Amino acid sequence: MRKLLILLLLTVSFYSRVFAQLNRDQYLKLESALGDGSFFSGHLTGFMLYDLDSQTVLYEKNSHQRFIPASTTKLLTLFSSLIVLNDSTQTLRYVTEGNTIKIWGSGDPSWKYKTLYQPDFQAFLAPYEHVIFSDANMMSPAFGYGWQWDDYYYNYSAERTSLPIYGNLVQVKKVGNAPTVFPPSFQPDVFPTNRSIRELERDFHSNKFYYNPNNFRAREEFIPFITSPDLFIKLAADVINKDWSYQADSLPAIHQEWRGAPLFPILKEMMLESDNFLAEQLMLMVSDRLFQRLDTERAIEYMLKTYLYDLPDKPQWVDGSGLSRHDLITPRTMVALFEKIYRMVPDHQLFELLPIGGKSGTLENSYKAEQPYIFAKTGTMSNNHSLVGLIRGKSGRYYSFAFMNSNYPWKASEVRREMEKVMVIIRDMI
């Protein structure tokens, strides 16, 4: 029986290795699609295709080179969140004294943001007449290292705070030829202008908003506001009809915690819609859970030294969302990271988290096929586009891949079209 078992294991090992290899014609076909003379030879391209079953690299091109990952950085945030946060958000840390509660935010982004599950602040704060808010545990600045300054009025660049409300965004709707904003407390600060602008735009230094009645379109539905403790307690008091005040006291060693919302819906929204705000707040929650302070840089350093120490090439990782051009990572490290996630997350949850080609999230309008074959996270910023995840071959088996492009002079849509041609070739050969 022992000899039969050994023979069986050797046979399975042999056939899995044979099955994992590309033949010469397949290899040359990929070389033609990605190598010299191809569309991808005009800029920096990195690629790796990896068999998850046999743990074998089937093909690679420049997989050791570092690329700007853009929003595929969110895979690092996803992994960190799954490892550290478990199944729920870290919403508040607090102490009480009589009818007063003093709270420190822990980074939870849920409060009044999109359609996320809402922590029941009303019920939680009901026993108290006075709420004191402190942000003394917030160590990271409002914007990440290397974010572009002129993104300040786009919804994907909302500020990071210890306890956000409304996603730190003003919502805009068009009524006639003028904007109506929500929360309504911002409406008195909306002014007409003769400037040739088509959207509601915020002043760089203040929460004053301007629009041109002749050109106003309201296509930008959300605009970030400048956060401050005073503004936060005003907005919070409007929602929770209580007396709020601000006091920048340090978090005491002895305190209580409140976990107010399930984590998975936040992870799903971040991944499918590539939500930068959620990604940044998740890394703040990771830091809070680890160190009881909100310090993205420290949380990143911890993850790289512990759970991610064995990646093939150490990432240069500076934020949760990938907004920074200082983020740098290699395709083979992306594949190794994805394999960690693949081994950790049950299949049904993983396929809920990943955008699906032609079906959902940021891939809804690309990689279309009668039978979906791409399940992956996208990442795009000017002159950079990446795709990392799973491809299902015609055999029905799944393979991991990383496809990263930098320094191209074309529109991202053109790069995506050419990438899709390559992925169809791979789907049909595996």
CATH architecture group name of the largest domain: 3-Layer(aba) Sandwich
The stretches of 5 or more residues where confidence is low (pLDDT under 50) are 9-19
N-to-C SSE series? HHEEHEEHEEEEEEEHEEHHHHHEEEH
| Biggest sheet features | 5 strands, antiparallel
CATH homology-level superfamily of the largest domain: DD-peptidase/beta-lactamase superfamily
Distance between the termini: 35 Å
Q: What Rg do the Cα atoms give? A: 24 Å
The number of helical elements comes to 11
CATH topology of the largest domain: Beta-lactamase
Average the pLDDT over all residues and give the rounded result: 94
Oligomer: single chain
- Helix % is 25-40%
Classify the beta-strand content into a percent band: 15-25%
Strand order of the main beta sheet, please?
A: 2-1-16-15-14
Q: Tell me, what's the shape?
A: globular
